[in-house]
Amino acid sequence: MTLSSWRSGRTPQSFTLPAGIVLALVVSLLLPPLGNGRLWDALNRTLPTSARQQVVVVGIDDASLADYGPVSSWPPGLFSQALNTLEAAGARAIGLDLPFNDPAAAPALLRAAHGREKVVLATAPGEPVASAGQVNTGVGTLIRSQDDIVRSYTTAFQDGDRLQPTFAWQLARAGGAEVPLNTTRRLIRLTRPDPGRLPAIPFRNIVNGEVPRRELQGRVVLVGLTGRGRPEVRGPYHLLIPSVHMQARLVTSQLMAPFVTFPRWLRALLGVLVMVAAIRLRGLWGYGLAFALLALSVPLWLLGVLLPAVTLSLCAVLGAALVAVERIWTLRQLDFRDPSTGCGNRAAFMRAAEQRWQVQPQRPLGLVLLEISGLQQVNDLYGWKAGHEVLREVSGRLGQARGRRDMLFRWGPEEFAVLLDNVTEQELQHQRERLQTALSGLTYRQVPVQVSVASALSTPEMDSATQLVEAAHRDRHRTRLTDNRRS
């Protein structure tokens, strides 16, 4: 009859792929974004975007402070004069990033901004602005990372059960941007500086009307302190810059096309696919895949796509590591595993028997030896591959017939051994008959494959597992003598 296919027991290969999938899901979903933010920060600084200058900073520098004194002492008319100049020049929106929480400066700012739809005042989170009347306000707080660097922003801050829009979002919306209002963190997008423009236009030039109209027309203007006493933050380039310049970067980021990001489910799916690819490719290909993903993040960045390359590369490296662990385990098991059948070999049998021999007086060991006849004829007629097929069929049948705690080994070229733990004489005989029945009627094409069975049970008089094997051999010899007498 035709031999059925043999299914081996659990091997490392059986667990590598499922373990890799679980590991990829953990890395993609449960762990923090890892080094993706640092990668994007490096790309942001190395490859800034070329874009039309849409935001202008008007700086209250030391010269302006020398002319007009501290900002807290400025009259409403000075602010109004500057705002009139900016509106007349065609500014799309005007933001005043000034100390609104200063009791001395707040009244003048409110009076100057009152009724002006294009003007936005920067406030602190939770700061009451009810007295502002017809004045647009936004939270001017900047988000600092653990290393005190401003790399990201949100469009709103949570204030109880409502959202407070940010100062930059109010200006960007007035400038035509359509960025959702939420607390999601977004990466600040850096742009190449325009060599033909000053970092900031002096405030006194605005008051005196000394700025060409083309410098302001159609742009968002931010007015802030750049002279002494200015608030400073550390930006993506790790340098201290005036706070108003950072607000300008936030507005610029929102006026540009947003980055394409990957939702969590898609990140998890990509992580699983990368893990599976690394495991299937085997060898060192997983590490090559990791480097390829990191390299792919560069052109995708230029296209405005934030690839979570560090997360995906980690999945690829972990996949390669799982393959390496699998190979190490396989190499260590070669000394105790029969490659043809997947069963333990004679060395594995002796190790298992010796480990159990210490308690054999309380838990007797049983041994069943099965010798296959007809295998050499199969090899001669059909080749060694056919012989291996017979061996796999035999081990498969014995594996199904043995008990749950019984252990199957290949004892010799044509022999198998089954080690039974904690059995009686009756249980040993029952299992012997069951194993013999499992191999009855086995043929390969026209060649019959027969089996002779011997068994032995350990006794307190035995000193080692070797004596148990010798007892099984004596039982086989007695069985052959009995069969010869009958024939």
From TrEMBL:
This is Putative CHASE2 sensory domain-containing diguanylate cyclase. One of its GO terms (biological process) is negative regulation of bacterial-type flagellum-dependent cell motility. The chain crosses the membrane at residues 15-35, 268-294, 300-325. GO terms for cellular component: plasma membrane. GO terms for molecular function: diguanylate cyclase activity. The lineage of its organism: Bacteria, Thermotogati, Deinococcota, Deinococci, Deinococcales. Residues 363-487 form the GGDEF domain. Keywords: Membrane, Transmembrane, Transmembrane helix. Coiled coil: none annotated. It holds the Pfam family CHASE2.
